[in-house]
User: What shape does this take?
Amino acid sequence: MRKTVIAGNWKMHMTCASAKEFMEGFLPLFKDLPSDRNVVIAPPFTAISSLATIIEGTQINLSSQNVHWEDSGAFTAEISPSMLLEHNVRYAIVGHSEPRKYFSESDEQINLRAKSAQTHGLIPIVCVGETFEQRERGEAERVIRRQVEQGLEQTDLSKLVIAYEPIWAIGTGKTCESNEANRICGLIRKWSGFNDLLIQYGGSVKPGNIDEIMSMSDIDGVLVGGASLDPQDFARIANYKIR
Ligand code: PGA
Assistant: This one.
């Protein structure tokens, strides 16, 4: 059985003080989490160390929001796998649409990041997804297939999560219709050739749509931005109920 992964991507939000305050609200709501799911939080780099201490002994795992392919060197603004492992980070988001868009990350770089994460024992969460214009032009499947094939090249598919995040649904309040998200996730599974691949959906996930999304046959979790910043909302999402 595929164990689901519920991940919160805090992006460039939360100081150490606000991360601590979040956990004070979140941890009491999070006690009896069913064992069929993993909960992950990806804070900004500065909050990783203090959060690692706060969540010790809980069921929460830490993720980074990126990881470099070299272990050290002249790579200003980057973070290496060993720096993350020192703080018990277990996952690393790579290829999110924001660095793809703002910093022109390529599929080749994303693949290097994913492979580096795996080599060091981190589980990459590889993000893929089409823009609104690509969808309108009927190019969504071709774009996603390219991102999947290039991003996952020479990776171990049993130690990886892929997040399907239609870019037009991120931070816009427009969720991709559940059946359509499920159809694309099914295609990703088929293209990958690995039936047990863990596939998340991401894009305006909230308490009001989580149960429907998690009832879909090919969706094994969610990557949550905005709603993961609110302890009540993220706890409700982590405690999703299958319909
Ligand atoms: P959102 O972001 O939930 O705010 O739409 C999702 C993401 O960027 O991963």
Summary: Residues 9, 165, 170-171, 202-205, 223-227 surround 2-phosphoglycolic acid (CB under 6 Å). The longest helix spans residues 178-192.
